[in-house]
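Quick question: what would this complex look like in 3D?
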Amino acid sequence: MSWHRIYGLILRYSYLLFRNPDRAADTFYWSTIDLLVWGLTGLYVERLAGNLLIINIIISGIVFYYIIFRSQGEVSVNLLEEYWSHNLVNIFVSPLKFGEWMLAVVVNGVIKGLLGFVFAGAVALVLYKVAVFSYGFYLIPFIFLLMLTGWFLGFFVSGIILRYGTKIQFIAWTFTSVFAPFSAIYYPVSFLPDWAQAVAAILPTSYVFEGLREVIRTGHFDPAKFWISLVLNLVYLGLSIVFIRSSFKKALERGLINTY
Amino acid sequence: MSYVLQANHLTKKFGKFMAVDNISFGLKEGEILGLLGPNGAGKTTTLQMLLGLTTVTGGSISYFGKDFYQHRSEILEEVNFSSAYTKLPWLLTVRQNLTFISYLYNIKDRKARVNQIIKIFHLEKLANQEVRHLSAGETTRLNIAKSLINFPKVLLLDEPTASLDPEVAAYIREFLANERKQFQVSIIITSHNMAEVEELCDRVVFINQGKVIADDTPENLAKSIEISHVRLLLTPDVQTKLIDYCSKYKLLCEQEGRYVIVDIKEKDIPGFLQKISELGISYDEISIERPSLEDYFLQKARTTTR
């Protein structure tokens, strides 16, 4: 593992954040729009229901959901960036190892995920006086678990792109959303129909959002939910790493990455 | 001279299609080797295998006596590649591109090297411009600059001067020749510019249908073509006479204005000139073009088409 090579790629993707409006929009724009739309909806529902926790739950859900979205997006969209700019050849004729590329996009995802989280948290505070940062110590395990989810989703999506090319690039922006209804971001798992609860039970995200709501409601952090989510995340992360590595091998066999 | 690169029995199959069929060749230290062949011959696939961008179906590759697949990262520190068809990230500036690429290699003073490369390739005025604003020629120049950032001992170049204007192309050729002379850089070059290959290359490996057809110096390959072009300036009345004569003796000829060009074996030229003189075909001007690498290329490409 070479740190200067990993740093080189982080540098490459960081340059892009400030030069490509699409990447800046991914990090800052969409979270703000969601916070506006769903925050205002939450305020309205809160007034109708008279429940003061609704806005907290919705806003926290959005802010934390964006951690998964950004972590996954940074892995997959950065692979797409290399396809779009025909740069895969330039980076893989260098001594760079595929594992180093994976680590670089993960570190990049951590940086941008945290940047997006702090930004969205600040927007939530200014617009709705919802202080997600007030969860203090509990932020760390939640953020960590959601980032793990983002990485395994990102590796899985990137593996599919390596196998089938840019013709299915839409999954880089849509794949995570498939899991959103089962992750119980805004409502409890018990609210889901039985079959959906079964899906939620194998998703690490449902335990995170259930745990998050518990912290908001009672101030209590449930370690059991943390451990279940961690184990599920690690299993899926391991599988996704095997998948993306085998996809890269397949891409090399087919000569997919070398279409100049 | 020792070999810095050896490809042994390289084979690549895409499904049932045999792209490269059991080819072997070596590259000596300080040598410039031309990899030639018509489109689809297997040149690019070969280069890609040499760079690890495509896995081999069979055979082995070694650089500096070490197996490429076992020492990939270590070897690629000393190797680089440029193609007229690759691009660097187009939203990044020239300097940003060279900077991030420099971090992919083990270079001591990266900032100084980036500045040096910018200077060598006259990219100072373009350094802060985004790549998307560069012309095709400037992009090619940047690609070549990028390929030299790590002081490579082996350089693989896929049509490096395509889309460059003649002046810049000449500068690049001179630069490459100088790199070889000064630093013993070994270079493999693919090009469709035969004059460039003749000027630069010590040796040529000719590939067609995935197989090595020839491996020799450009001069010897050209010499292996026996046919020379005899170019005669004729008056219109004798042009027809000459064309009829060529037709009768099955000689290939072509009319270009007042010129008639006859393809004929070098040893037969004196007899041919005597014969047409006897027929009363007089010419105002004559030139004999000896076979070139281009003639070799055309002949091989025609005779071994798929």
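Answer marked as accepted. The mean pLDDT of chain A is 88.
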